[in-house]
Amino acid sequence: MAPSPPARRRYGRRLLTRLVLSLLLGGIFVVFMQRAGLQLMPARDSFEHVRWWTVGVYFVGYTSVHYFRAMRWEYLLRPVAQVPRRRLIAIGFIGFLAIILLPFRMGEVVRPYLVREKGRITGSAALGTIAAERVLDGLYVAGALGLALVLVPRRALVGVRIGNFDVARVPQLGYMAALVFAAALGMLLFFLWKRALAERLVVRTMGLVSEKLALRLRDIVGGLADGLRSLPNPRLILPFTFFSAVYWALNGLTMWFLGWGCGLPMTFGQGFAVMGVLGIGILLPAAPGLFGAYQLSVFAALLMYFPREMVMREGAAYVFVMYLAQLAFHLLAGLVPLATEKISFVEAFSGGQSGS
Question: Which of 78, 112, 226, 276 is the one with CA 20 to 30 A from 158?
């Protein structure tokens, strides 16, 4: 069901406002990193130690990473609806591109929108599966980071800074993220097991502001609960957990491999630490392309393990090459399914948030 013209106009205004704000935020990131001496465009000699064949291998590995990322959604979605795996993966790749292109992670709702079907799959139920996926991913990546921080020796971080940011705070932020995601999982489980109570609380509290809004939010909470039904089902949550482990393990291994390919003496554990810091860092508001938060997160992770001179040289090449490789993958993997699945760009990138 295509969004109405008024809904598209409303969405367009919201998107333009958020785009301007996100670009301003991206500009702030750029100024901050330049003043901190971080090279967004590395000097030519930074690429002297790059083994360029490893970039192609990384690209193939990164493709495998996102195949598992897309296909595991089937196990969360199965209580809501049966969707052919081929279409599920295509929608997944389109959704991942939307997260990259749209500001402030507005693309998170694209997958639920594209998978919904009138009379069969509600947008709220599909969104519930995404909420569960995001929270569980947050726990996985925070757990991986926590293990890396405990098991992998770090450099002495006294006085190691990026501008005014103390790199020694990165481990603290990682542990804090784990607590936040654990609390979020508790809230989702509350929606699932105490659905009626959650709906009554929404109506009673939001009803003080607007009865219409309260009823709409009640329906959303109910839909979210529908999308969480896979969580207590071992036949669904165990395969999801397994493929999530494969996804995150491959992600960490490919990051380690590309780091080695760019001339960094990176270990497996350091690769997983970089993955963990990046996974948490890109949750921050950022410009389209996750620009700014992405680069700053990887630089901060590298400074925990390597001398500043190496980070500013081989590390800068690593950040630059990895970012471009990931961006190229998402553009290719997201645009091709739009054509093969006959989904219009407007439908995919505006319909899900148009208010229709």
Answer: 276
In the chain, the amino acid numbered 227 is G
pTM of the predicted model as reported, rounded to 2 decimal places: 0.85
Token pair belonging to 24 = 């301003």
DSSP 166: E
Give exposure, 316-326, as e/b (b: 16+ Cβ within 10 Å): bbbbbbbbebb
Residue 110 main-chain phi, psi, to 5 deg:
-65, -45
DSSP H helices, the chain, are: 5-35, 53-71, 73-77, 85-101, 110-115, 123-151, 169-193, 195-206, 211-226, 234-261, 268-281, 293-303, 308-310, 316-340, 345-350
Nearest Cα to 228, choosing from 69, 72, 73, 77? 77
Rounded Cα–Cα distance for residues 20 and 62 (Å): 30
Handedness of CA 166, 170, 172, 173 (dihedral sign): positive
Give me the residue label for tokens 């098991």: 151
The distance from CA 248 to its chain's CA centroid, rounded to whole angstroms, is 12
- pLDDT reported for residue 355: 42
What is the pLDDT, as a whole number, of residue 277? 92
pLDDT tens, position by position, 128-148: 888 888 888 988 888 888 888
Which residue, among 187, 197, 188, has the nearest Cα to 218 in the 3D structure?
197
Map residue 1 onto helix, strand or coil: coil
Q: Name the burial class of residue 228, with classes exposed (0-12), middle (13-18) and buried (19+) by CB atoms within 10 angstroms of its CB.
A: buried
Domain residue ranges in the chain: 5-33+44-353
Q: What is the pLDDT of residue 209?
A: 79
- How many beta carbons lie within 10 A of that of residue 355, not counting itself? 12
Which letter does DSSP use for residue 313 in this model?
Answer: I
The list of the chain residues with pLDDT below 70 reads 1-12, 14-15, 117-120, 285, 347, 350-356
